[in-house]
Amino acid sequence: MGRLKTFDEEAVLQNIMRVFWQHGYVGTTFSRLEADTGLTGRSLINAFGEKDDLFLKSLEHYCAETRVWLTPLADDPTIANIIAFFRDIANALSSDPRNFGCLMVNTVFEGAKINPAAKNCQASFRNMVRERFLTALVAAKLPGAEAKADLLCTTLWGMGAEIRSSGTVKSVASTVDEVIALLENWQASSPAPA
User: Fold this and answer.
1) Cα distances (angstroms) measured from residue 133 to each of 12, 14, 77, 187, 191
2) Largest Cα–Cα distance in the chain?
3) On the CB side of 143, how many CA atoms lie within 13 Å of its CA?
4) The pLDDT of residue 134 is above 80
5) CA geometry: angle 20, 163, 144, nearest 5 deg
6) Of 29, 68, 135, 140, whose Cβ has the fewest other Cβ atoms within 10 Å?
7) Torsion 58-60-61-62 (CA) sign
């Protein structure tokens, strides 16, 4: 008879995700995972699978967390909530893992080292974020909403790279200020409600 699990899978998965987020796919080793989770490599493999499986589960977990983070924008698709989304990034505390950048953007830099399922998860993530932006821009009746959503998504992607490179969300504070000014300008020029 096998041994029963004596750990909280959700908490362990959170730790695993954080390790991949901070160190990337290549920089994440089983010894690093063991140190951060308190579990043996064998326990991690038994519970979650090999490294590729752990990484994919981390990406999926990150996507689910981001979906929750985007809930205000999904529930109330407004430019004000896009602004709040960007402002929240710039105001993240120094202990916030967002200071590692964006896990999905970080994954881009590892390119060929990740498997196709991880690349698909990355594409789904980007589409989800873009859809949230697009829905709010369409609700505001802005012309060129598709292009504006692309611009916001690309800016967010670039911010993730900048944060990863610098190690702090503070490095994008002026970019966030510019994005907010742009969004406010778009909002001011949107047609008045009938």
Assistant:
1) 31, 26, 8, 13, 18
2) 69
3) 5
4) yes
5) 110
6) 68
7) positive
Q: Which amino acid appears at position 166 of this protein? A: S
CA-to-CA dists, residue 66 to 47, 73, 100, angstroms: 24, 11, 15
Distance CA 178, CA 184 (A): 10
Please enumerate in sequence order all residues whose Cβ is within 8 A of that of 90, keeping only pairs 6 or more positions apart, or say none.
169, 170, 172, 173, 176, 177
What is the C-alpha to C-alpha distance for residues 53 and 177, in angstroms, rounded to an integer? 38
What is the chain's alpha carbon radius of gyration, rounded to the nearest angstrom? 19
Residues 29-35 have a mean pLDDT of 93
Residue 59 neighbours by CB distance under 10 Å: 26
Q: Is 181 exposed, middle or buried (0-12, 13-18, 19+ CB in 10 A)?
A: exposed
Confidence of residue 1 (pLDDT cuts 50, 70, 90): very low
Res. 180: pLDDT tops 80: yes
